[in-house]
Amino acid sequence: MTFWQKIKQAFRSFMYGRNGADHLSMALLWTGLICYLLGGIVGSIAVSVIFPVIGILLNLTGFAAYMFSLFRVFSRNVEKRRAENRRYVTMMEKRKTKRRQAKVRFQNRKTYKYFKCPGCKAWLRLTRGKGVVTVTCSRCKTSFTQKA
Ligand SMILES: [Zn+2]
Prior knowledge:
With 148 residues, this protein is α+β, with helices and mostly antiparallel strands. 60% of the residues lie in helices and 14% in strands.
């Protein structure tokens, strides 16, 4: 075995049974890095004493995120880490869907009037120029009048 193969082997056996890098750990790593850099920039603003204080807080936050990321990568409690990661991925996907839907609403704002159902807060739409219409929500069956 060459030296590098030995190193690889050692690393593989060290990582065995550990969580490894996942989406949440990578996000924490980036959050940590960005907070740390921002902390450096904000901390160097010499206008008021508040900026160095915020800078230090950002540095500490960044460091905590970085440490939590490392903790998660090397954690042996794989099941718990996977559950955390799943929650994080689900949350991010929901946000992505919300952003995509908001974009579609914005693109079609001249064709459709968008509004929320007063009963279940679901997004509904009517073709513009229809006047006052009685709407029945398809999800919760609430009826209400809506101007379009
Ligand atoms: Zn509804």
